[in-house]
Write a structure and sequence with these properties.
Length: 566
């Protein structure tokens, strides 16, 4: 699947496994990005305004916290609204916190409505803001320094969860050493790339596993020469029109990181797409294209076309995310029978230094607390309650704690009710942890290490169903099974092979003005080079043009940002 489609599919399906609600019925619904969220209603310690709150974790009498919300009517069952719903009621019952929305608008109107509220200085106690708006609120002294509040009132579980990426996303919410927001954390690791290879072809053709880039190139050459039995020309490496302009996984094997900002030898940040390693990798792809190892229609074929080629035994190797077997489910399983055997591998290196997979700690949204809020500690308690839900395992239907996952019905109704919670953050390393524990659980039947996560337990159950003969869950074996993508994610982690973008701030002024133009030009040039419509020397002209068209100014701005974070 293309990186564009990957992103859209992952985000559109995230909620299903965030709540680990039920086994998804199709492969598409299982291409997920985040962890499970099955609430466990607990009373946290803490709050200074009331002796009762400090002793029991619940305000008595209740206090009110105001917020503002984006509304999605699809979240609600009959009789429930964003202003009156079972999840808001649960916070009042469990914590003594009455949640009140100052206003509710359609999702598409939220940002513009919030800007009006900011301009009027008419803000609730806490609210969600975009990465673009956060610096303006901080500079305008409208939001509270949460450093001490978070330290004193965030639970240990919350504190651990938000730094499981090494603290990079929390760092993005820090200004002059002060924590000014809570990032809506997500998993940077889920964007890692892997090599997906037809395992049965490797065995049939007596080929090595792709442990080095030289192995991969040998495999590509051999696969491209396969006889498909009249189904069309075979190709060594599958790509589509969205990948060809930025073939990230392949370039990572050459220690090239397109689109990222990386440190040079002096410690300054430079743009990854303009570095010489990119040119080397593009030249190799150009050679593969000329040799007939890449589809000559790659610049116009979409991902559906590439999956058709997979189905017709014309493509047996490609780069993709951990969930890519889900995208291939229908191409592989036909009439209930598995027709192909695929394996997943970490990115091979062109030399003796291990290849790293590029990821980013960038955050799209943050939660801030009004500088004048009376009960900032209560916001931390709402956060803790959500984290308890996130880490509590999948609740049984009817269990009172299921309210935070499923709302009034206390069971999955397919409406993603979890999103009604006013403050949600997500597990950053869920699938890395899955890679550590799932294999052992599958071997021994002991699921104690994964019971805390409805998502991981759900995947365990699906692998077991496949082993019992249910081919509906073929895709899950290469994701969560032994030797699957989760184990490779854990391997990346253990070997320090995640390559983080050094820039994770909001777009700089010139980036906002010129970034889209420069990115479009970059993808056009890379595509032309790979398909032979331009000489490899065109890369040098691209670097010069990128610099003149605003890249030099962006580099200056990025390094100013970088210096401010030191």
């Amino acid at each position: 699947m293309s990186f564009t489609m990957k992103k859209g599919l992952a985000l559109s399906c995230a909620a299903a496994l965030l709540l680990a609600s039920a086994a998804c019925s199709s492969a598409k619904n299982n291409a997920q990005t985040e962890g499970s969220a099955s609430p466990q209603a607990t009373a946290t310690t803490s709050s200074q305004p009331s002796d009762s709150a400090a002793a029991t974790g619940k305000y008595d009498p209740p206090i009110t916290l105001t917020t503002v919300r984006a509304n999605d009517t699809a979240l609600f069952t009959e009789g429930q609204t964003m202003d009156k719903n079972a999840i808001y009621d649960a916070y009042e019952q469990d914590l003594g916190i009455t949640l009140k929305n100052n206003w509710v608008v359609d999702t598409k109107e939220y940002d513009s409505k919030l800007k009006i509220s900011i301009a009027a200085n008419d803000l609730p106690d806490f609210f969600k803001v975009s990465a673009e708006d956060l610096p303006r609120l901080v500079e305008s002294d409208m939001v509270m320094d949460l450093t001490e509040v978070f330290e004193q009132y965030a639970s240990e579980e919350t504190k651990k969860l938000v730094v499981s990426d090494g603290g990079k996303q929390m760092q993005s919410a820090t200004f002059d050493g002060k924590l000014m927001a809570i990032p809506q954390t997500n998993s940077p690791f889920n964007a890692a790339s892997f090599v997906w290879v037809r395992q049965d072809w490797l065995q049939e053709m007596n080929l090595p596993e792709p442990k080095t880039m030289q192995d991969l190139l040998q495999i590509s050459e051999a696969f491209a020469s396969r006889n498909t039995g009249g189904k069309g020309k075979a190709f060594g490496l599958g790509l589509d029109k969205d990948q060809i302009g930025s073939p990230i996984g392949f370039l990572n094997g050459y220690h090239a990181y397109p689109g990222q900002w990386v440190k040079d030898s002096s410690g300054k940040l430079v743009y990854g797409s303009t570095q010489p390693e990119v040119k080397t990798a593009l030249k190799q792809l150009q050679d593969m294209y000329k040799a007939g190892q890449i589809d000559p229609e790659v610049a116009v074929n979409d991902n559906a076309k590439m999956l058709e080629q997979v189905s017709n035994d014309r493509v047996g190797m490609l780069f993709g995310a951990f969930w890519y077997s889900a995208a291939m489910q229908d191409a592989v399983v036909k009439d209930g029978k598995v027709t192909q055997e695929w394996g997943v591998y970490t990115i091979p290196s062109v030399d003796g230094d291990p290849a790293m997979s590029q990821v980013s700690a960038s955050v799209a949204s943050y939660y801030v607390v009004n500088k004048n809020a009376e009960h900032p500690e209560a916001v931390m308690k709402v956060l803790n309650q959500w984290v308890d839900a996130l880490l509590g395992g999948k609740p049984a239907d009817g269990d009172p704690r299921a309210v935070y996952s499923f709302g009034k019905e206390l069971k999955d109704m397919g409406n993603e009710a979890w999103a009604i919670n006013p403050l949600t953050i997500f597990i950053q390393d869920l699938y890395v942890q899955g890679g550590q524990h799932l294999g052992k659980a599958l071997d021994t039947g002991d699921t104690s290490a994964i019971e805390w996560s409805g998502d991981l337990k759900n995947r365990y159950d699906q692998v077991k169903k496949f082993e019992a003969g249910d081919t509906t869950f073929w895709y899950q074996v290469d994701i969560a099974g032994k030797g699957g993508a989760f184990e490779k994610m854990y391997e990346y982690s253990q070997q320090n092979r995640y390559h983080f973008d050094e820039f994770y701030g909001v777009a700089t002024p010139t980036m906002a003005e010129r970034g889209d133009l420069l990115k479009t030009k970059e993808q056009e040039v890379f595509t032309k080079i790979i398909i032979g419509a331009a000489s490899i020397d065109e890369f040098d002209k691209f670097v010069a043009d990128w610099t003149k068209l605003g890249g030099d100014k962006i580099t200056e701005e990025v390094n100013e940002w970088h210096a401010s974070r030191q």
